[in-house]
Amino acid sequence: MEKKVVAVIFGGESSEYEVSLKSASSVIENLDIEKYNVIKIGITREGRWFRYSGDLDKIKNNTWFLDNSCTKVMISPSKGDREIIEIKNGMLIPTKIDIVFPVLHGKNGEDGTIQGLFEISGIPYVGCNVATSSVCMDKDYAHKIVDYAGFDVPKSLAISRQTNETEIEAFVERVNYPIYVKPAQEGSSIGITKANNKHELFQGIDEALQFDNKVVLEENINGFEVGCAIIGDDDLIVGTVDEIETPSGFFDFKEKYTLEYSKIHLPARIDNELCEKIKATAKGIYKVLGCTGLSRVDLFVDEKNRIIFNEVNTLPGFTTGSRFPNMLLHSGIEYRYILDMLIELGIKR
């Protein structure tokens, strides 16, 4: 059987650059070399593209871009070529690829921008399309679509620098504190704060505006958060539901990657009936937002067991210790097979 050529892209200009390096390292390490020829493409924080042929350890410790093996590279925009083009010693060296696996989190990677490049180039890729990636990255737009489709969502208000303070105060009066303040298009809880009073609210807004021009104010849900790992286009596979236990009620960036005080329960501490309702809700939201390939759908369960939408991650954390692969592993799907399924789906699509 002829090997598929898989271009794994990592790094990027996003604030989640380091997360991408960890996720990509796990993907590269676990791709079956009997099935795939793997091409490693790194994007620096400054947005420079290189083909990298060095050791995996240098990706893990973020020294890959200093390696002598790095050569400038670009993707051919000519539809049908399905090539990357290296620029080496004044020469253009093309290499055919079968599919791109963009292991990029956050802006310019998970928001539809790079997916647009693949679409223009006619290159198959793993994950959601341009529109879905863009919508899911924007917490305001995703909530509006999911709400319109009839699912429960938290009360929220999208604001900008021009928003009148009176409008903000009216929202506070309607939902009361605490209120979560979120950059509309950031991941990994970056820039998110929990406000317990007016001073913290406006301080949080100022902080969130450093990451995005649009900020979402969101009511607090008294309950707990659960997650669903989903793979598929039409026939969906849902992993075991997990549950986040956070003493502070806020699963921030530090807690997501250290679990210093928080704990992930896998499976979630819920009965089977509620578990099946959560899975059905997650699948419904996945389809409503047009997800393909994979996504992690995060939900809240309130004190009345009402299931409320939180967000969708179209490229969730992908290390072997991350929630997404672990939920699928718990349901019997090994990490290496997850990669096989995603590549097969991308090529078929």
Question: How would you portray this structure in words?
Answer:
With 349 residues, the protein is of the alpha+beta class. It folds into three domains: 4-125, 3-Layer(aba) Sandwich (Rossmann fold), CATH 3.40.50.20; 134-152 and 222-348, ATP-grasp fold, B domain (D-amino Acid Aminotransferase, Chain A, domain 1, 2-Layer Sandwich), CATH 3.30.470.20; 156-219, ATP-grasp fold, A domain (Dna Ligase, domain 1), CATH 3.30.1490. The chain is built from eleven helices and 17 strands. The chain has helices spanning 17-30, 56-60, 113-121, 130-137, 139-148, 165-175, 198-208, 253-258, 272-288, 323-330, 335-348; strands spanning 4-11, 36-43, 49-52, 71-75, 83-88, 91-96, 99-102, 156-159, 179-183, 193-195, 215-219, 223-232, 237-238, 242-245, 263-265, 293-302, 307-313. It has a seven-stranded mixed β-sheet with strand order 6-5-4-3-2-1-7. Helix 1 (17-30) links the parallel strand 1 (4-11) and strand 2. The longest helix is centred in the last third of the chain and has 17 residues, at 272-288. The chain is globular. The mean pLDDT is 93.
